[in-house]
Structure prediction request, 307 residues.
Amino acid sequence: MAFTAADVKNLREMTGVGMMDCKKALAATDGDMDKAVEWLREKGMAASAKKAGRIAAEGMAYAAVIDGVGVVVEVNAETDFVGKNEKFVDFVKGVAATVAKEAPADLDALMACKYNGTDLTVTEQQQEMVLVIGENIKVRRFARFSENVSVPYVHAGGKIGVLVNLETDLPAEKVQEIGKDVAMQIAALNPRFWDKSQVGQDVLDEEKKIMMVQMENDPKMASKPEAVREKIVMGKLNKFYSENCLLQQEFVKDNSMTVEKYIESSAKALGGKVTFKDAVRFEKGEGIEKKQENFAAEIASMVKGNG
Prediction:
């Protein structure tokens, strides 16, 4: 399988490894991106792989609680300038309000819903925004929590939107600080899993395999008996949990405790119980590669179609 300069760049962004080593990895693995990441990790060059896809699209990720319903949405635009435009921001908030009110099953259903406060569908309102603003705009994804207590957090004016869902016997206003602290942790560290119970055996087997190969490539470790190496690997897997699982991570505001312990101790101090149930983290443009397209023609065709 051949590979391009773009593949080398993408691998570098995913792993933080130098260009030449990324090129070697792709050459050694016949251009297979996943195998190239594994090859670099086995050589000890990459500690882990970041999620594939760098932020390329602009727009806004937005989270809110509307009439007791937690909502997080992402709406994309072409430029950062439009992402900060007041009309665009209002459109995003209207999409969130529509999600809260209509409870659409999926994106297609959302686009067919009546946009909040109008007789237009979300699709029609989106088209109106394209004509008004002069850029391509697209509602990309959403999530909704109608149960329990949801706490929203928006980072850097819409770069990241996080919605945390907590089960509690306390009034919603009393757990806002807990929810926000957890949301900020998710925004900053982007854990792969919420809890170690979600880590599948296939993930553990892959991590174990990589660790064993790393030790075989280390002269100091290669001479140790396999049973000893196995024991070392099990210790490293505990570190894997603490780095990749939210509830087992060190709490960023107080590294003497895990996030799980922070929630537990904070709830106890408030005289109740709080359990982390779920969360959603949207980062604008995540996984989208920006394409240089001529949207002027698209806008012109829309004008013509409406004429």
